[in-house]
Structures are given as structure tokens and as C-alpha cells.
Design brief:
Helix content is about 25%, strand content about 40%. It is an alpha+beta fold. The radius of gyration is 33 Å and the shape is elongated.
Length: about 500
């Protein structure tokens, strides 16, 4: 037992920052990075790292950066599971919102301590007590209201309260007595992965225990590899990564799944034993009804987390009118093979923050394959919806215009009648369709061939006015009947 205790070392806290979109999570992280991270010549923060290490009063803190939009819910949940401490960011003027409640549930499920950051206290409309009461209604009772959860008033804009927030994080970490076993083989979680067009599969890992060294054999349940190189969040080369330290690894055979556990193995045989590769079944042929249209797409994304979020939103698009079928979804730039697959499958390629080189563009043009690249997830989703709408069947939509009460009849013809009437509802127009209503039953149909007032032809008549109507159609018309006037338009259904 004493031997085990000697292997335990104090570890830096891993902190996840959660909260509603636009409440200032990124702004707080940006301020902390600028004031607590010394930029080195070797490079700034890389695009895909997903985690940052800062130093405050000689002690290190690792922050996990999670996207704020609702599409990235799974990533935020995963961040809470990996972290030791959660920061709940709440706009001190706006209060508790939908994703605030979502964040609270993630933290509770993870069972980790929380610190509340009441942000934007520089705004004039701040209502601190009101926000604290809203939090209390969601079972978050801060210390100033006789609770146990520490809170800090901060401004990411001015920097007020940021030092207090960092000191509170370190105090909570000290109270939690965070330890890691440094004698065991390194283990941890994949927090992001992607395919670098020049280097190959890359993954961002956070160690939870042990150490990770250059050339170590690594395995997740989906892939394995050898750590050819380790870099910290600033792109600096490392020989060894310690517990809680975010590290980017080059050397996996394929990008590992985001959220997977990884471990260091002594031999390749041991690593293969950790693999749990599921046999990929041949794609099932969807039984599509003859009256259903299909949109085939190929999805290429920068990182697996983005792909997971986009696929989640796409699956929720209603498919009663058009079936959305994803032929392939993977990380990496658009390739010639993607163009070939799109041509064969009559698909459109949707890229999210990926590259399409000139050779691939030329090949796509030659094969008449369409591709679209996006920087914003919601713009991609909206474009998919637009493409689905384009292939919907044209639908006849009825637009009710108004009603005429028949006051007098003039002349009689097999197909045409001249009617004197009064518009009792809406506005009627020349050329519109008509239903003859008698005792609320349809007894005939036709259309308005012409409209007149004071023997002058007019295009339309509004409510309350009398007019002459030249009706052409089928069915007998009697005085007192109601002519229900409408227009039919052919439109594509909304997706």
C-alpha cells in the first residue's frame, strides 16, 4: 500500500469551460491565454489542438476548449468527463439559458466540482443577484447564497476577476488533492483527431495517469500506432508528456475516434490486444419508396469532432419528402477518389474547413461533380437543406383570397354567368379559381374571367365593395350563394 502511495504525484487540474453560446467562454480563454501563456518563436496555438496549458503563480492549469454551438453537445459532454473541474460561464446580464442548463447536467453526470464565472460584469445591465437566484433554481447554490459552489465576478473584456478565477481553480484543485500514478503505462483520452494532408493522422491526447514518451506504442479501441513525435499546444517538440498535459501525437495508423481511451503498450502484440475493431458491414441498400427522392452526399471535415456534430444535425433534418444519404463521411481534404465516388453515386461533396487542390478541382470539373466548402457549420447545413428542397416534387399549394356573396344574376349561359356581388372577405382578383358554396357545401367550380366596377374592367376588388363578375365554369349559381375565391401555385415543399 505504501509503495502505491509513493507512485502518486500531484497533477495539474484539467478544466473544461462550459456555458451558453455567446456568454463569453472563448473570450475568457483568450484573455487567460494572452496573459498567462508566453508565446515562443516555435509557433503559436495550432488550429486543432482543442486544449491549452497556462501557468498561474508557478502552477499549471490545462483548459479544454469546447465549441459553444448546440451542434457540438457531444464534444462538451466529453470535455466534462475528461476534466477534473468545470467552469460554468454565465452572462451576468442575460442569466441562465438553454445551454447553461445543458452544461449543468453534464457537470453533474461527470461528478466533478464546479466554479461559476459570472461574466460581462463591465456591462451596465448586470443583475448579479437575479442570476444567482436563477442558478439556485437549477440546483446551483453559490457561496454568497450560503451554498458550497464558489463563484467569481469576471470581465473577459477588461480582465477584472480573471486572476481570482485562476486562484479559485487552483484552490479547488488543492482541496480535491488531484493525483496521478506516474509509475504506470500512460493512459488517457483522445480529445480531438484529424488527418493532416502532409503528415498523416494526428491526435490530441490528455494523459490521466502515467507518462507518454516519444516512440511509445499506442493503442485505442479503433486504431494503434507509435508516437513518432510529441508536441505541446504551442507546437514545441516534447520528449515526454506528463499527466494532465495536452499533447499532439503523430504516428497513429488512422485518426482515432474522438472520446476514445488510449493506453501505452510495451509491445505491438499487447497493443493489438487493446484493439476492438468492429467488422465493417457492407453498406445496406436502402429500401426507398418509388415516390421518394434521394440526395446523396459525401462529407469531408477537418476534425472528427466537427464530423460528429455535422452528422448529428443532418440526421435530424426531416426526410419525409427527400431522403438524405451520406455515402461517406471522413476527415481529410477532398481527393480524386472522392470525386470518383461522387460521380458514381451521383453525389455532392460537402467540405467543412478542408482543402481542394487545383488538380482535384480540375478533375471535379471534368467529371461534372459538384463540391462545396464551408467555414461555418450552419451554412453547410442550410446548403444541404437547399439542395434537398431543389429535388422535391413541385406541389400545388392553394392560397385562399376572399369571398363574394351573390346578390343578383344576369343572363344565363351553359358555361358563363354574369353575377352582381359583394366582397365579404379578403380580396378577389381576375383569373382566380372559384368554388360555389351553398349551405357550406361545394356545388360547382370555375374561375373569374373578368371583373368590373361601373362598367370598367378592373384587376381586383377588396372587402366591402360591390362588383360585377364574369364567371366561367360548371354548376348552377343562385342568389345568396358564396363564391370562395382562391389561387393555386406550384411550389417546391420546404425541407
Amino acid at each position: 500500500m505504501s509503495e502505491e502511495k509513493e507512485n502518486l504525484a500531484t497533477k495539474s487540474p484539467v478544466v473544461v469551460v462550459l456555458g451558453h453560446v455567446d456568454h463569453g467562454k472563448t473570450a475568457i480563454l483568450d484573455f487567460i491565454r494572452k496573459t498567462n501563456v508566453v508565446e515562443k518563436e516555435s509557433g503559436g496555438i495550432t488550429q486543432h489542438i482543442g486544449a491549452y496549458e497556462v501557468e498561474h503563480k508557478g502552477k499549471k492549469i490545462t483548459f479544454i476548449d469546447t465549441p459553444g454551438h448546440e451542434a457540438f453537445s457531444a464534444m462538451r459532454s466529453r470535455g466534462a468527463k475528461v476534466a477534473d473541474i468545470a467552469i460554468l460561464v454565465v452572462d451576468a446580464a442575460e442569466g441562465v439559458k438553454a445551454q447553461t442548463k445543458e452544461a449543468i447536467s453534464f457537470v453533474k453526470k461527470a461528478g466533478i466540482p464546479m466554479v461559476v464565472a459570472l461574466n460581462k460584469i463591465d456591462k451596465p445591465q448586470v443583475q448579479l443577484e437575479k442570476v444567482k437566484n436563477e442558478l439556485a433554481k437549477n440546483d446551483i447554490l453559490v457561496e454568497s447564497m450560503a451554498g458550497k459552489i464558489p463563484s467569481c465576478n469576471v470581465s473577459a473584456k477588461t480582465g477584472e476577476g480573471i486572476d481570482e478565477l485562476l486562484e479559485t481553480i487552483l484552490l479547488v484543485a488543492e482541496m480535491e488533492d488531484l493525483k496521478a500514478d506516474i509509475s504506470k503505462a500512460g493512459e488517457g483520452t483522445v480529445i480531438e483527431s484529424y488527418l493532416d494532408s502532409k503528415k498523416g493522422p494526428m491526435a490530441t491526447l490528455i494523459l490521466e495517469k502515467g507518462v507518454l514518451k516519444e516512440n511509445d506504442i499506442l493503442a485505442t479501441h479503433s486504431t494503434l500506432g507509435r508516437a513518432k513525435s510529441l508536441t505541446d499546444f504551442q507546437g514545441r517538440t516534447l520528449k515526454t508528456a506528463q499527466s494532465s498535459q495536452p499533447v499532439t501525437v503523430l504516428g497513429f495508423e488512422a485518426p482515432p475516434e474522438v472520446g476514445e481511451k488510449f493506453k501505452v503498450s510495451q509491445t505491438e502484440e499487447e497493443a493489438r490486444g487493446f484493439l476492438r475493431r468492429e467488422e465493417k458491414l457492407a453498406p445496406q441498400v436502402l429500401q426507398i419508396e418509388p415516390d421518394k427522392k434521394v440526395l446523396n452526399i459525401i462529407l469531408k471535415v477537418d476534425v472528427l469532432g466537427s464530423g460528429e456534430a455535422i452528422e448529428g444535425v443532418l440526421k435530424n433534418i426531416p426526410q419525409e419528402k427527400v431522403i438524405l444519404r451520406i455515402l461517406k463521411a471522413e476527415v481529410g481534404d477532398v481527393t480524386v477518389d472522392d470525386i470518383k465516388l461522387a460521380e458514381g453515386g451521383k453525389a455532392i461533396i460537402f467540405g467543412f474547413r478542408v482543402k481542394v487542390n487545383s488538380q482535384v478541382k480540375a478533375f471535379a470539373g471534368l467529371r461534372k461533380v459538384r463540391w462545396k466548402n464551408f467555414e461555418v457549420i450552419y451554412e453547410l447545413i442550410q446548403e444541404v437543406r437547399r439542395e434537398m428542397t431543389k429535388i422535391t416534387e413541385l406541389e400545388i399549394q392553394r392560397i385562399d383570397l376572399g369571398k363574394i356573396k351573390v346578390l343578383v344574376l344576369f343572363g344565363k349561359d351553359k358555361e358563363e354567368r354574369v353575377i352582381g356581388g359583394k366582397v365579404i372577405e379578403g380580396e378577389i382578383e381576375k383569373g382566380a379559381s372559384v368554388e360555389i358554396l351553398r349551405e357550406e357545401k361545394v356545388v360547382g367550380k370555375g374561375r373569374i374571367k373578368n371583373l368590373q366596377q361601373e362598367k370598367k374592367d378592373i384587376p381586383r376588388v377588396s372587402k366591402g365593395k360591390e362588383c360585377g363578375v364574369l364567371f366561367r365554369g360548371e354548376g348552377e349559381i343562385e342568389e345568396g350563394d358564396i363564391l370562395n375565391v382562391f389561387r393555386e401555385e406550384r411550389r417546391r415543399g420546404e425541407i
